[in-house]
Design goal:
- Helices cover 42% and strands 12% of the residues.
- It is elongated and about 75 Å long.
- It starts with 6 loop residues before the first strand and ends with a helix.
- The strands form four sheets. Strands 2-1-3-6-7 form a five-stranded parallel sheet, with helices on both faces.
- The chain contains 19 helices and 14 strands.
- It is an alpha/beta fold and 469 residues long.
Length: 469
């Protein structure tokens, strides 16, 4: 069908958004009709109008995804593009499972909508996937993020969640690789089976094969009984291979056979066993660099990297800090931690500032730690002072700052002064950091003050005695 003759239906309750979308599509030569409610949209569908439907998910009188099965039954050849401001993993998965042609999380560029519409018009007449049963998952899903990188992750996960394709998740430590693996399992077709994680870096090299594939009785010294491996434990479910880059070469060869032939051989066994698992792997290493060094098999990499998912660190998606802080504060409140107000009057300002500092580490778990610290160290009324003391910091640590140097740096200076005095040399030196070091202050009569600050800091008496032999 020519785009010039295509008839587009638009369902959007926001008048300004509806007008912008209409004008953008009209400039492309489409005929556009719009509605602001689900009831109005259904009337247009029943009348037989429209070749492509573009709809917001949340309409005032209903959910467009709940209406979609009726639309598919009445107009099975109509491609549907959905838009949503509820940019969660569950929304992306639900949209994919109901058979939509394209899912666009708001905000989006008009160019993306126009390109999706052109593809939808070109696909008219092709068969469409039908709506599938929805898994029982809490609203919002297990992952939090409204940034563009996370929306791309959600869309990629939604496309593969219902398949058995092997997924390789890469990213720095703390970016949520296991959360993504669990979400792929919990929202997928194998959710009724077990989810079995195994950390390859935590297993001794000589036990990796036994842990993965199991062993028979008498297979080696100490094998007094048969033991099932993780592949057998994950039968019918998903096996999560965390830190797969730390797998020894021998185990890499055996894993490659499982991915190629779908079967494995327990240690000491004579007959191979069919594997019925979905493999999800994760690593914080650069596997391509490991391949260049000969530490990781190239053929195994390509077998694992069927669906690559790279999780961005939090410093690359700082707009997710606020949703993450709110999420962790709710978790803390559910665990009994009081939701205190910030010292600046806004109920979340203090937590946001602290989480912003923690986000420089790039780890999604940092706001969780910061939120807990905020709730723990503010006063009862939330106005216990603008300065927040880090947990676990002793009085000795705070007093040590008055010396100008920390305890490990302070001790060698005093010991050096003692040795020089014992040898009859001068009792001062220049500091490598510029200026005059602590032992010169001792020589010019400031030793009492400096030594007193060290004694008040809680250091051991030997340091003060070394400064004043």
């Amino acid at each position: 069908m020519s785009s010039r003759s295509a008839h587009i239906l638009v369902a959007e309750d926001d008048k300004s958004v509806r007008l912008v979308v209409q004008q953008a599509l009209a400039r492309q030569g489409y005929t556009v009709q719009s509605s602001g409610t689900a009831a109005g949209l259904w009337k247009l569908i029943e009348s037989g109008r429209g070749d492509v439907l573009i709809s917001d998910i949340a309409l005032p009188d209903g959910d467009a995804l709940d209406l979609l099965p009726r639309i598919q039954q009445h107009r099975p050849d109509m491609p549907v593009i959905v838009m949503s401001a509820r940019s969660t993993l569950l929304t992306a998965v639900k949209a994919q499972q109901t058979g939509v042609f394209e899912y666009l999380p708001k905000p989006f560029e008009l160019r993306s909508l126009v390109e999706a519409t052109e593809r939808a018009v070109g696909s008219i007449g092709q068969s469409r996937p039908t709506a599938q049963a929805q898994p029982g998952v809490e609203e919002g899903g297990p992952l939090v993020g409204r940034s563009r990188p996370m929306q791309d992750i959600f869309k990629a996960m939604a496309r593969v969640v219902g398949t058995d394709l092997t997924v390789l998740i890469t990213g720095e430590s703390g970016t949520g690789k296991e959360l993504v693996a669990r979400a792929l399992h919990d929202l997928g077709s194998r959710r009724a089976g077990p989810f079995v994680p195994i950390n390859m870096a935590a297993i001794p090299r000589n036990l990796v094969e036994s842990e993965l594939f199991g062993h028979e009785k008498g297979a080696f010294v100490g094998a007094d009984s048969r033991m099932s491996g993780r592949f057998e434990q994950a039968e019918g479910g998903s096996l999560f291979l965390d830190e797969v880059g730390d797998m020894p070469p021998e185990a890499q060869t055996r894993l490659l056979r499982v991915l190629q032939d779908g079967e494995y051989l327990p240690v000491g066994a004579n007959r191979p066993v069919k594997a019925n698992v979905r493999i999800i792997a994760a690593t914080n290493h650069n596997l391509q660099h490991l391949m260049q060094q000969g530490l990781f098999r190239e053929d195994l990499f390509y077998r694992l990297n069927v669906v690559p998912l790279r999780l961005p660190p939090l410093r690359e998606r700082t707009e997710d800090i606020a949703p993450l802080v709110n999420h962790f504060q709710k978790q803390a409140a559910a665990g009994g931690l009081p939701a205190n107000a910030s010292p600046r009057g806004h109920p979340r300002a203090g937590g946001m500032e602290l989480a912003g500092e923690c986000a420089r580490t790039g780890k999604s778990g940092a706001p969780a730690s910061c939120s807990g610290r905020r709730g723990q160290h503010f006063g009862r009324n939330g106005r216990g002072g603008a300065r927040i003391r880090a947990p676990g910091r002793s009085t000795a640590d705070r007093g040590r700052q008055s010396c100008g140097v920390s305890r490990p740096a302070c001790a060698p200076v005093f010991q050096h002064t003692r040795r020089r005095r014992a040898a009859g040399g001068p009792a001062w030196t220049h500091s490598s950091r510029g200026g005059i070091s602590a032992d010169r202050r001792h020589a010019r009569g400031d030793a009492g003050k400096s030594g007193e600050s060290c004694r008040n800091s809680g250091d051991q008496p030997q340091y003060a005695s070394q400064a004043h032999p």
